[in-house]
Amino acid sequence: xxxxxxxxxxxxxxxxxxxxxxxxxxxxxxxxxxxxxxxxxxxxxxxxxxxxxxxxxxxxxxxxxxxxxxxxxxxxxxxxxxxxxxxxxxxxxxxxxxxxxxxxxxxxxxxxxxxxxxxxxxxxxxxxxxxxxxxxxxxxxxxxxxxxxxxxxxxxxxxxxxxxxxxxxxxxxxxxxxxxxxxxxxxxxxxxxxxxxxxxxxxxxxxxxxxxxxxxxxxx
Amino acid sequence: xxxxxxxxxxxxxxxxxxxxxxxxxxxxxxxxxxxxxxxxxxxxxxxxxxxxxxxxxxxxxxxxxxxxxxxxxxxxxxxxxxxxxxxxxxxxxxxxxxxxxxxxxxxxxxxxxxxxxxxxxxxxxxxxxxxxxxxxxxxxxxxxxxxxxxxxxxxxxxxxxxxxxxxxxxxxxxxxxxxxxxxxxxxxxxxxxxxxxxxxxxxxxxxxxxxxxxxxxxxxxxxxxxxxxxxxxxxxxxxxxxxxxxxxxxxxxxxxxxxxxxxxxxxxxxxxxxxxxxxxxxxxxxxxxxxxxxxxxxxxxxxxxxxxxxxxxxxxxxxxxxxxxxxxxxxxxxxxxxxxxxxxxxxxxxxxxxxxxxxxxxxxxxxxxxxxxxxxxxxxxxxxxxxxxxxxxxxxxxxxxxxxxxxxxxxxxxxxxxxxxxxxxxxxxxxxxxxxxxxxxx
Lengths: 220, 442
Description:
The structure holds two protein chains of two kinds.
Chain A: E1 2-6, H1 10-22, E2 26-30, H2 33-41, E3 47-50, H3 59-68, E4 75-79, H4 84-92, E5 97-100, H5 105-119, E6 127-128, E7 132-135, E8 140-143, E9 146-149, H6 152-163, H7 171-178, H8 189-201, E10 207-209, E11 213-215
Parallel strand pairs in A: 1-2, 1-3, 3-4, 4-5
Antiparallel strand pairs in A: 6-7, 7-8, 8-9, 10-11
Chain B: H1 5-57, H2 61-64, E1 72-73, E2 79-83, E3 100-105, E4 110-118, E5 121-128, H3 129-177, H4 194-244, H5 248-281, E6 291-293, H6 294-311, E7 315-320, E8 325-327, H7 330-347, E9 353-361, E10 364-371, H8 402-413, E11 416-421, E12 428-435
Parallel strand pairs in B: 7-9
Antiparallel strand pairs in B: 1-2, 2-5, 3-4, 4-5, 6-8, 9-10, 10-12, 11-12
Helix pairs in contact in B: 1-3, 4-5, 5-8, 6-7, 7-8
C-alpha cells in the first residue's frame, strides 16, 4: 500500500513517514505543491495525505488538478486550516476526508484504512475474497480457523492482492505498492514475501500465473 | 463621589440665584423701608402744614388745639397734634423744640415728632415710631413678594435647562456603555453640543485605534493558534512513534526527533512570550536603561550560540570595526540580536559563515549579522517582518516570529532594522541601526 504524503513541515513529514511505515505503508514524501503534482501524474499511490498550506502551489489547487484529470485516488486533507470554508471547499474539490492538525495518529490511520477500503469497493473493515480475510487494523490474516499475524511487508503484499481479487498483479506493480521511492528493492524480494505468506496461510493462497504475475482467487 | 456636571452646575447656579435673590431682597427691603419712612415723615410734615394753615386761617381755632387731650387724634395712623405753647402738651415734649424732625422718648414709646413754626406758633405732629416701623416693614415686605416667587422658579428652570443640555452627554455614555468591548463602534457625532463634539471626535479616534489594535491582536492570536498546531502535530506523531517502537534501538532512534519537536514547541512558546512582552512594553521605558557595551553583548551572545553553530557546521565570529556604546535596555537589544543570530544560524547551510559585525556610520552604531545563507528575495524583505511569515519553501522550522519580535524591540529602543543582500556574494545582512551614545566629555 503506497501513500503519497504532501507536507511542507519537515518535522511533521519525517514523523508521519515513520508512523506510516510502522503500519506497513510505503510512503513517498514531497514538500511542495508542484512536486506533489508531478508525483501524482504517475498514479502509483493508493492514497494521498495532503497538507493545504504548501509552497509553490496550494494544496487545494493540487487537489483540483488531480480531480480534473479524473484521478480517483483517495485524498485525505491534513491541515491546520480550521475555517469551515476551507473544509467545505476541500471536500467539494474531491477530498475524501479532512483531518485537522493536531490529530491523533490512530485516527489518521483509521481514516486512511477507511478511504482505501471504500476505494477498493469494500464497505467492511476486513478485506476478504471468501476464503481468506485480512484485517488492516490489526494486520491479521484469517483462513478457516487459522489466524496469522503478518509482518508489515507481508501484509502490504496480501493487501494489494486482496483489494482486487481475481486480478493479476505484475512484479513491478507489487513492488510499487510495497516499496516507496527511496527504498532499495532487492530483485527477489517479492518472491521472498510471497513465500512467507504462503508458509503462514497455505501454498494455494496466492496463485502464480506464469509469465504474468500473481493473484488471489476471487471467492465464490 | 464623582463630580457630576449636572449636579454641580445646578447647585452653583441655584446657590447663585438664591444668593442674588437674598441680596436683592435685602437691598429692596432696605430701600422700601427707607422710602416708607420718608413717606411717613412727609405725611407728618404735610399734616403739620395743614394744621398750621388751618390755625392761621381761623385764628383762635389754632388754640383749640391746645386742649388737655391731644389736639387731634388719627385713629388709624395715630398722629398726634399739639401746639407747643399749649399747656396740654405732654411732659416729654419740650416747649422749645426746634422746628424740624425729632425722635423723642414718649410716655410709653418712642415718638417721631415734626415741629412746624407758623409765625409765633409752633405746631408739633407726633407719631409712635413702633407704629411707623410696623407699617414701613409691612410695605417693604410687600416688595419681596415677586422675588419670593421668582427665585424658586428660576432655580427650577436652571436645573431643567442644565439637565436638558447634559442629556446628550448622558445618551453618549449610555451608547458607550452599550458598546461591545471586543469591537466598539464609533459614537454618533450628530446632535452633540459643540463643546463635547471635539471630545466625542477624540473618543472616536481612540476607538478607531483600539479597533485596529484589537483586529491586529485577533489576527495575531488566530495566527498563533494556527502556528501552535504544527509543533503539536509533530509532537503527537513523534510520541506515538516512540510508543510504537518495536525494539530498544528503534526507541532510541525515535527519542531524538521527539526531543527536537519539544525544542521546537519550546522555542515557539518562548518567541510568543517574547513578542507579548515586547508588545506589552509598548512605548514605555524605551530610553531607560544604562549604557550597553555592544561588543561585550555580542561576545556573550556568540558564546551562547557557539555549540549550536558547531553542530550545524557553521563558522560563527565577531568583527568589530569600531567601539560602540548604546543607551537603552540591554535585555531588549539582546532580544533583537538573539533573533537575528538565530535566523542566520537556522537558514545558513552547513559549512557557511555567520558574522556579527559592529561598525559606526556617522553618529549611528550599526550592528550587523551577516550570513552566507540563500539570501532573501527583494520582494520578501518587507513582508518577512509580518508575524508568522515564512518564505515559501524555506527549510528549517522557524516560528516566523523572530523578525517581528526584533522589529518591535528595535522600535522600543528607537533603532531601526533592515535586511540587505550581501554585496560580496550570496547571503543576508541583518542591520540594526541606532544613534550612538556619546559620553558628554567626548
